[in-house]
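Exercise 7. Given the encoded structure of a 137-residue chain, write a plausible sequence.
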């Protein structure tokens, strides 16, 4: 059996919008299920996302959900997502899209360890790390 590690992101009522945005960045197939679809159709959370999963053709998996009523939500403090590799064009494209409307903490540029690296907090409060392994000079 295969094991995988992937981030699970929590949102405060805008999980569908966020997951659709990430699908526009990374492509792939997005499945979204609400609390109402799983028996909570009389709940104030019925239209909130209980579970969303984005599977991409590049092997990325991203999961997310809205917090239910009464749960606390503190954006950006408990999750960072790292995207790394050596596909310069693709990773720069991801960075460009993620940085739109974001707070850029570290611009995407060559770092002392030799890679291009950038860090931003996107418009949904999620911190992203993009690391592009560059060929040795």
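Solution.
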């Amino acid at each position: 059996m295969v094991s995988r590690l992937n981030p699970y992101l929590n949102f405060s009522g805008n999980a569908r919008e966020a997951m659709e945005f990430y699908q526009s960045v990374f492509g792939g197939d997005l499945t979204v299920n609400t609390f109402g679809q799983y028996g909570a159709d009389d709940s104030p959370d019925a239209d909130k996302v209980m579970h969303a999963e984005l599977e991409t053709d590049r092997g990325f998996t991203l999961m997310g959900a809205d917090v239910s009523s009464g749960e606390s939500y503190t954006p950006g403090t408990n999750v960072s997502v790292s995207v790394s590799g050596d596909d310069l064009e693709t990773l720069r494209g991801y960075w460009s899209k993620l940085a739109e409307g974001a707070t850029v903490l570290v611009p995407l540029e060559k770092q002392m360890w030799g890679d291009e690296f950038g860090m931003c907090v996107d418009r949904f409060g999620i911190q992203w790390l993009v690391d592009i392994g560059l060929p040795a000079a």
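Remark. The longest helix spans residues 15-26. Students should compare their own answers with the one above.
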